[in-house]
Amino acid sequence: MAPETPKNPSTPRPFEPQVGLPVFPGAEGFGTRTVAGRGGKVIAVTSLADDGPGTLRVALSDPSPRIIVFGVCGTIELRSELQINHPFVTIAGQTAPGGGICIKGAGLAIFTHDVLVCHIRVRPGNKGLVDADINDAVSILGASGKSDGACNVVLDHISASWGEDETVSTWYGAHDITISWSIISEALNRSRHRKRTHSAGLLIGDSSYNVSMHHNLLAHNDFRNPLISEGGTHDFVNNVIYNWGVLPAEITDYGSNTFLNFVGNYFVPGPSTNKGPYEILFAQGNPRIYVEGNLGPHRPDPNMDEWALVGFGWGEEGVAPVKYRSLNRFETPPITSVGAAEALDIVLAQAGATAPRRDAVDQRVVNDVKNGTGSIIDAPDEVGGYPELASGTAPVDSDHDGMADQWERQIGLDPNDSADGNGDLDGDGYTNIEEYLHFLSDRKQAAS
After folding, report:
1. How many domains does the structure of the chain reveal?
2. 224 is catalytic
3. pLDDT of 149-189, one tens digit each?
4. Torsion angle of the four alpha carbons 328, 334, 335, 337, in this order, in degrees rounded to the nearest 10
């Protein structure tokens, strides 16, 4: 931990109900009342190059509030990580034509506040120029407790895989974050990392707090499914964890006071799974945990004791002592949830970058869960490498406002008026271009 990062308090922070519109209809969890890029300029990505005019890197470097749309589809091969340093931004991967967008060679690092990332694939791999020890797919990095650090960040329907350090992580006191309806898979194990084996899925650490993780698929990660360390209040709801290796969910408190809800999650063992540890493990410190409706090898029947899958220590050292148990759910923003068995079905059907369509990597991983197949991998080449994404042509947008002419005509907008994107035709608080983004997201083509 960085010395200047303050520890979380010894009791849960006072819960403050969120105000304002959800960042998109149905958004739930901490930070989801962010405005993100609402009301900002529209920037179109027109090049798959790493840098230069029309690239995603240049769009992200713009200091203005902005909504980033895509006029191209395919794989962006990076020489260094992409960084978001300026706040109030929406990255709308659902606007890409064809097979959508994949980021290769390096990851995405978020250092600022009020960010929405949707329908993007980030798959760094092990052949890029980034040091393997920091080669995450997506990292959300606070400012060691400063108010202008990473907060109010929403990752929704992203696909993150083939990281060499973590696949997804929060650090340096990042807070008020939601990771929802995403696939976090195939963290690379024996790759280039200095620890030699490091297939790490999702890390919530270094005094991060107020993190919601719901309706995600974590698959083929050896450990950190997730790892929650160093305190804070967090929600882990309706996630599916498949084919972990050494460890499934881990909590290392380090005396920093963790308050955690585990509700309606399904732990599904696979070919690589070590059959020993409990599904939810904790070691150092004094975390408090609330559990409800989770299923897994130690609790296959919903009529069994709720605590049957929560254990102390790194092995079969016994079910969690009473002092670590909370009888009441910690207060967090509401998340619509279902039973664990139903969560398995809906997560497999809907998670990941599904708009404009699922790619072959995600579909293979989903099929692995359904069929009980697959393994923890060392390199993307073991599973076919990067697929060629389907080609496509962006719809005509005469006024370059980010909305297709045809859609504008259908709802009564003027396809030659570039100013109407930030209007609000139906008066619901969402701008017209946001309505277009919602329309595209609703047309997701996830395969069954």
Report:
1. 2
2. yes
3. 899 999 999 999 999 988 999 999 999 999 999 999 999 99
4. 50
